Amino acid sequence: MADQGNTTEPILYCYKLDSISSGGVWNERPLHKFAIPVLLWQMVLAVIVSRGLAFLLKPLRQPRVVAEILTGIVLGPSVLGKIVIHEAGIPVSLGEVVYPAASHRLLETMGLIGLLYYLFMVGMEFDLQIFESWREKVIAIAAANMALPFIVTLLAANVMNLQPPGHVNYLSQVVFIGSATTVTSFTVLVRVLAELKILNSELGQLVMPSAILSDLMTWVLLAATVVLPASAGSNRDIAPTKFAFLWISVSGIAFTAACWLVIRPTMCWILRRTPEGEPVDDVYISVIATGVLAVGIITDMIGFHAVYGAFVYGLVVPRGPLTIGLRNRLEEFVIGLLMPIFLATCGFKADLSLLNTEDKKGAAVISTLSMIIVLSFLVKLGSSMAIAQYNSMTAPESLSLGLLMNTKGPIDMIILNIGKHKQIFDVRMYTVLILGSIFTMAAVTPSVAILNKTSRIRVAHKRRNLQRCRPDMELRMVACVYNARNVPSVISLLQMSNPTKRSPIFVYALHLLEPTGRASAMLIVHEIGKSKGQRQVVSNPSGGAMQSEQIIATFESYEQHAGGVSVQPVTAISPYSTMHEDVFNIAEERHSTLIILPFHKQLSVAGDFEDINPSIRSVNRSVLANAPCSVGILVDRGLSGGGRFSVSQFVEHHVAVLFFGGPDDREALAYSWRMAEHPSVNLTVVRFLPGEEAPVPPSPSLSCASGEHAAMTVVEDDSMQRQLDDECVNEFRLRYVSDESVMYTEKVVNNASEAVAAIRAMNSIHSMYVVGRGQGRESSPLLAGLTEWSEYPELGAIGDMLVSADFGAQVSVLVIQQHLGDDVGGFMEVMAASESPKLQVPRYFDNVNHKSRPGGFSDGWSAI
Prior knowledge:
The chain has about 850 residues and is α/β, with parallel strands linked by helices. It folds into three domains: about 30-450, Na+/H+ antiporter like fold (Up-down Bundle), CATH 1.20.1530; about 460-525 and about 545-630, 3-Layer(aba) Sandwich (Rossmann fold), CATH 3.40.50.620; about 650-690 and about 720-820, HUPs (Rossmann fold, 3-Layer(aba) Sandwich), CATH 3.40.50.620.
């Protein structure tokens, strides 16, 4: 059956059963008469055109589904069908030559097979446990986005006197139109949120469950509508008996119950037979994948559309290794090849020429449907914004929420295709609804991207560096790991940081992964305490999922045995070029004070540095350049004791802080305060001071008045930095004056050579050096010349020297860079705000020549 315009007259296609494959181009024309060559040519052409359109639309931030639907419109009667060519002197449509009418059914069948597997994968992606944590506003958003557009559709259809064809049930048509305009395609929504890096933001966590609930409500309503008699005169659509509706409903309920009570326990049994950490056997994967076709047959036979069976079948698949195995084997073929064909056939059925009509009835239908589409969009937008504003969300977030709830995609294409198949829509109505979905999809992503970009003003929380964070306050930090080998050293650093109930540490353990295959960029927040089957699965081949589980388990074990530490594991899957944005987003949204990054090189078995991945270095540099808080790069050279850690048997560590001055060194000293409180950490602070023979930093050689002012500003800034250094060091010394585990010394050196020699001569018992990266001390005479030979500029001059092969000692290094906000001080301000009385700090050094003055400290302190 085929429709032309507003008619639903049947067109009879004749198939020659023996014309399957050709004898080759040397004997006949295979692209004209034979099914296999025609089908393969059409599939290849559809995929090539869709990829080309996706490439062209990518700068406009258009989802790929838009390109795939437009492919069908381009190759269908709307564009290709209007081009006339001559064959043997006879004018024929180019569309009929490329896509002959007799081949449509075969191409649609291929698309339907892809649709079955796509809906099966969609069902697997649904996390039904999200129901446990839904809040009232999520239910309110989903209900409003479901009910209000339906009410608008019903009222508009009634006011505009939208009359369905005589053979179509009025309620069925209204419900199908309402479903198509109401549904939120959560599969496209996930990709939009991941692309914009807001999947795990407050907005993303609100819109995702709202979209899922809205989708489920739509599917339930649609499943009930599909069983309604869609035709009053077609034997194919009419129920043969008056009890057919009842039997169809009972059969649907029985099928759903069988899936949950029989098929799901069987799949759980398969998982129990699979050894821990091993993939599911290929035999089971093949059987379950074949089951998609079987359930499609069953639901089609009982009166439902085949996609309903595939969707329910996907819902019952237990999350874990089974979903990973199925997704890895199906995703590339289904989403990369079959779904573009299905979406192309959706666009192929539309005919834009039918919109240019002088028929008053046709024009009325077009205007009515256009009004319904616009009103539904505005109602969904307005209701979401109203609920968001009621819950104290900002205006940009409220508008973004409303736009995201209007996300369209394959789901509404499925609804429209079912309606078209059941002849609820004619070609004109179908074309209007298809265009409405395309325009909505095209508007949502760019609009949300603009809103997200303009509203992402970094939150200026007060404790974006360690100097502004009191020792008795919670320290929030983002600990990044690129692989499982980074975890023990990070945990060792956390242990050395002395987390206690009085001074707790909240750690966002961020596992950074590069997507492989068709894995989408996304952020996954894991919940500590859940089993593997309950946690959201990391869909990343090449061991990414297994490695994430291992990392989560390690941090979970550490949190359970350590006091004063809370860990929130997060997995970020994104290309290395944008990976730093994930780090920024987590640090900003969670108000973190410190970001810890592993060095891009690790110790090999032989004890040498080996480069794990050069891209990691680029990520670290990008984070250092634009981080919203302080950053530390951890160079692990045995800090974790051979990759093992034990909370109960914490080994003694000797830590040395090398203080040359400047904001980064003050930040390094501030971090060492926490270490100094640990009973198993012995801390040595070495301050390097310029001697009398040290060269004076050159002043800017500027002659104009503005230049003289700039030179004075530089001198004043240097003087202020020295004053801040003195205040920071003196406060530290006064705090730990009687602590025997803390040692403070001063080294007077005249140049970089003497500084390096002094560091080399230090005691070899130290397990870690803590140094500043060196912002603001580029003109220091004590480091002159070191930066010119730096192999790793991201570590600063001193850090680079400590990790070089020439240094000799195999010592771990923590290089810290302070976040410089609106003020560069804050150390004394923090102490003044603490609960203890304000300490009067004496000035033991002259701010100009740094010579020692009278006054002293107790035993355990020395000056060299």
